[in-house]
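This section describes the prediction task in plain terms. A model, or a person checking by hand, is given the sequence of a single protein chain and must write out its three-dimensional structure as a string of tokens. No templates, partner chains or ligands are provided. The sample shown here is typical of the held-out split.
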Amino acid sequence: MKLSPDRVVLDTNNAHEHGHGVGDHLYVHRHSLVHDLPAQVKTVAAIVFIFMVVLTPVHAVGAFAVYLGLVFVVVKIADLPFPLVLRRMLIEIPFVLFAVLMPFFGPEPRVEFLGLSLSQEGLWSAFGILAKGTIGVATSITLAATTRARDLLQGLETIGVPDLLVQIASFMLRYSAVVTDDLSRMKVARESRGFSATGIKHWKVLANSAGALFIRSYERGERVHLAMLSRGYNGTIIDLYKPVVTKKDWRTAMALPIVAASIMVIAWITL
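The expected answer:
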């Protein structure tokens, strides 16, 4: 961090040259075409691709199969382990559970399946949530696995996301690990004194620990804020690392959403 007359300036060149930074637990280090693309280019491509998927009519089953195939082609090009991607996609389970319930509560007409009365509209809605949600989650996982957290935040700022939101996300990434470490130390301290949460009677102790963690985090936030103000912070953080974006980068990254847009248009025309 360098002192500027009116702004805090960060030099992250070393962070890009030496290993992972803070919040990079989702990043998978590889040397691939996808990894080498600038973050803002990948972010725009991912957003446009997901937008095309959402706009696709739910009855175009073949289109969603092609979309999913395209995502896994990108995963292959990025040399990401398929088991890792599939394991991370378990985050979609709540959406799956919600989608499974929709055919039971949809309107008429209904169909019989294994003795169950299911709504046709509910079935299509459930398929739409599963298909679009799965493709969106897979795309997001691929983006996170091929882009360092710091690069992703800088890319969001480059494409016009408000600075305040980017800075909030940056501090969340930085201090989530610190808060988690505090929580782990408090747990070890309780267990070293023979404490074990086995019932409702221990909830008061856990509540007190949560309160202490909140106060500790709040006080740390105040100290960090004062330290930043003393270094010239006025609401803007300048990153000295500026990746070079070429027309070739844009052509490479936008190939995926352009293909998706073509599929979406064909799906609407052929309905």
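For orientation: Confidence is low (pLDDT under 50) at residues 1-19.
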